Amino acid sequence: MTLSYSNEDDRAYGLAGMAISLAGLDALDSIVDISLDADGPMVNFSQQYYYSLSPAVSPKSVWENLIRNFHITASMVVGNVLARSMVRLHEDLPAEVEREIYSEIAAEGADSCGLEKDETEVLYRRIMSQHRRIFGNPRLHPAITELARIISRRRTLSGLELREELAYLQL
Known about the structure:
single chain, mainly alpha, three-stranded antiparallel sheet
């Protein structure tokens, strides 16, 4: 199974879904820019996103940052696929795709944060529930579609520009 993008429109919806996920977590301030044309990650984070292994930083602080970043990343993945499926294609997320996403998120939670399967499942279910309410709401579909069009047209937006567009669209 592959979760690759079918075309540029699909990629723009995925990036719009990630941006909306970040807004929902009040994490837009951690974004330097987003780019539809990026060869690597389409979302570039500021240095504050990344944790420091400095001895001056408490282990608790490092742990909290790891968990927050894992939550942000998992949320972006879910937002990406739900925007593409529920908004762009007007279809529910196929069960096999949801299982694959959960499997990858569970593996990442274990690898990056040492989370147990039940801890990751609780986080995943909460993210999925929140995102299904957002991306399953037909009243929001026109604004999400417009954000995808803006991303397609502008190609790259700074974090500030992204915040302005989301505010304008009332997302």
